Amino acid sequence: MPGTSLPSRSRRGLLALAAGGWASPALAAYPDRPIRLVVGYAAGGGTDITARAVATRLGAELAQQIVVENRGGGGGLPAIQSVLQAPADGYSVMFSTAAVLVARALGTPMSFDPLEVLAPVGLVGVSPNVLVVHPSVPAHNLRELQAYGRSRSEPLRFGSPSISYTTHLVGQELGIEVEEVRYRGTGPLMTDLLAGRLHAYLIPLPGIQAAVRSGELRAIAVSYRTPLAALPDVATTVAQGFPNLISFTWTGLEVRSGTPPEIVEGLGAALNAALADAELRRKLGESGVEAAERTDPDSFRALVLQDKARAEAVIRRFNLHE
Fold first, then answer.
1. pTM for this model (two decimals)
2. Which of 91, 203, 221, 269 lies 20 to 30 Å from 147 when distance is taken between CA atoms?
3. Is residue 315 within 8 Å of 103, Cβ to Cβ?
4. The domain that contains 195 carries what CATH number?
């Protein structure tokens, strides 16, 4: 998809046209000041790194500065609330993830439905979770983990930074007993995993890439349909015969509901142009993010609803709640 790119100002003019020639002068000028990209995680983490890479390229496409604002904690609620407190004018954009939807499905109290208060712009990409085990676990693939789990009188201990449905999904699909050991953050979890007090962890690549490279952890499966470029030798769950063991996180852009459709369309056009950039795709790939080929609000929302339904099915089956 990468090709000859137009100067940013020319591109900006095309985005204005994409928004519709009948748009008011105020809308046609969008954006005429910096845009705030709100991230529901602390600076330095995998989601923040992805957001900043996207913000840099997207800002070039829009010929406007995009300022990343980190509002971590609270399962992503403070970040959404920050966007909802701002006008619906496209100058406060949410860098969305599945966290809030899953939290709501688990029963976390919130006064709004994220699917109603935020309008989709487009998908940035998906980050397949990677199943890693401590080297003491005698498994190099899912079949060996399944055999090991079934040979034990006690469940396999999976770490989780909070209540999670993905651990139970592994147990369900492999037909083994698992115990979800919850932590108040990834730091203590990784300490116990590296020490062998936990058997396994299902996590996006950025959180364990260094440990896999050093041999401190062993990656045995990518929980997706296609392999990760950063882990070419690790087979997917589908390739290993477990087509329903799909677990990934997604990231995308959303704005407050009620934002003029011309602005949503212009942002979407800029996002597609940014995602066509070879350098951005390379950076995202190195971080374990499979960048979207082309996106639009409808396809993004469809993916979100599909992921939500999958999570809710596991949550209901195992009666999970906060």
1. 0.83
2. 203
3. no
4. 3.40.190.10
Task: Confirm whether 278 is domain-assigned.
Answer: yes
Tell which residue, 63, 64, 62, has the closest CA to residue 33.
64
Q: Is residue 258 part of a domain?
A: yes
The per-residue pLDDT for range 65-122, each reduced to its tens digit, is 999 999 987 778 899 999 999 999 999 999 999 888 877 777 778 889 999 999 999 9
Token pair of 279, please? 């350098």
In a domain, 238, yes or no: no
Query: pLDDT tens across 273-314, in order?
Result: 999 999 999 999 988 899 999 999 999 999 999 988 888 888
Distance in angstroms (rounded) separating the CA atoms of residues 219 and 135: 10
Query: How sure is the predictor about 42, in pLDDT bands with cuts at 50, 70 and 90?
Result: confident
Q: Which two tokens stand for residue 90?
A: 């496209």
pLDDT in tens, 121-134: 999 999 999 999 99
Range of the domain at 137: 128-222
From CA 60, how far away is CA 66, in angstroms rounded?
A: 9
Same domain? 113 vs 257? yes
With beta carbons less than 8 A apart as the criterion, state whether 114 and 253 touch: no
Q: Where are the alpha helices (DSSP H) in 35-151?
A: 46-62, 77-84, 99-105, 114-117, 142-151
End-to-end CA distance of the chain: 43
Examine residue 227 and state whether it is found in any structural domain, yes or no: no
Instruction: Give me the phi and psi of 32, to 5 degrees please.
Output: -110, 15
Do 182 and 45 sit in the same domain of this protein? no
